[in-house]
Amino acid sequence: MLLLKSGSAPEKIIYAGASLCFLFISVYVLRAVRDEMAIQVGITSLSWLISLSFVLLVLFSLLFSFSPGGNSRLFRAFITGLCIFFMSMATIPPDLMTSVATVLFIVIGCSNLLLVSQFWKGLGDYFPETEAKTAYPLIMLIGSSGVLLGPLLVTMLAAQPIAHLLGISCLCLGISALLSIGMKKEMKSIESSKPVDILPGRRSQWPVAGFVLMYSTLATVLYGEHIATVERFSLSQEERMHFFGKRDLWIGLITLALQWLGQKLKHADVRWAGLRSLPFLTLMILLTIGWYNSLETILWSFVLFRSFNYAYARPARELYFAGTRGKFSFKSFIDTVVYRAGDLLGIWLFQLLIGWQFDYLQIAALLIPLIGLWILFTKKIVKTLNA
């Protein structure tokens, strides 16, 4: 897991935020590359790619969850392996990139999720819940600059070969790791201490597991519609990369605005309004795409959906588990395996409904029961956070 530099709380927050910034740059550059690989492989193959990603992610998740006392070493080895892999991919000629699109899609999908999950798990192991309520928003605020820089790099380098973007992502990932190698002694002390229960009784994992499953299922249906729409417009690779960069840049800007607003609103019920509204917003987005399926509609629908997720859903999930230490907690399992299980369910559901000739408006109507379950899990999470 990524580690923080020892010292005062502000110093730890700055180092954690800087590490998260470079991690986000790498993740967002790789995200655009992954979406380009999805286009090159084709929407009809997307369900199989996500299925293979799920299998690989389960294996990695088991390694990180049950490696006795070796999580930190294992994660450093994982980062080193990723850097070597991406540097080797960066040497591939552009005309051969399509032939390795499947491998890149699967590896990037697994690595992005594991990197972010392990980063937050490291923070959850170190910051107690009371300190996390102050530290997490500040860490996110510093780290969110990477949410803007990553897409900006993609937009500026849209005409460059994919190999160049892989090299930049590898460099940023290495810097993130270097910023996070301090405080080894303190973290070892925590890891060697007697494990706590899987989770405290008042922090039941099942509401978050259900929330993540419903969210990722619906998000993947939306992702399928997003990739299918971009594919249908037959854009060039440069135009697609520019589209993905523009999309993620707006997501970063709106996310920062929503986070700033959340910091200004002190009342708990008001601050969690964005989290409670996300299921309803998702339904409206799916209906809008069903009524008017255009490139601009899919762009702004995706921007709104992910902005609300990053501003409200993800921070709530992290805060829910803040201070719950122990290698055998379910948090990493939920963040990786349950998340990708929702991806698996969502993409096969999308392919099945499309195969049955359902249009996007009919798909939105059929997904209402899942949105209802999502609302129930959201209410439980908000109730626990307000307790």
CATH topology assignment: Growth Hormone, Chain: A
- DSSP summary, beta strand count: 0
What is the chain-wise order of helices and strands?
HHHHHHHHHHHHHHH
- Mean pLDDT across all amino acids: 80
How are the secondary structure elements laid out?
Elements: H1 9-41, H2 46-66, H3 71-90, H4 101-126, H5 129-156, H6 162-178, H7 184-192, H8 206-232, H9 237-264, H10 268-271, H11 273-291, H12 295-320, H13 331-355, H14 360-366, H15 368-386
Helix pairs in contact: 1-4, 1-5, 1-6, 1-9, 2-4, 2-13, 3-6, 4-13, 5-9, 8-11, 8-12, 8-13, 8-15, 9-12, 11-12, 11-14, 11-15, 12-15
Structure keywords:
mainly alpha; 387 residues; globular; 80% helix; Growth Hormone, Chain: A; disordered N terminus
Overview of the molecule:
By secondary structure, this protein is mostly helical. It has a single domain (9-386), classed as Growth Hormone, Chain: A. 80% of the residues lie in helices and 0% in strands. The protein has helices spanning 9-41, 46-66, 71-90, 101-126, 129-156, 162-178, 184-192, 206-232, 237-264, 268-271, 273-291, 295-320, 331-355, 360-366, 368-386. Helix 4 packs antiparallel against helix 13, helix 8 packs antiparallel against helix 12 and helix 11 (273-291) packs antiparallel against helix 12 (295-320). The radius of gyration is 20 Å and the shape is globular.
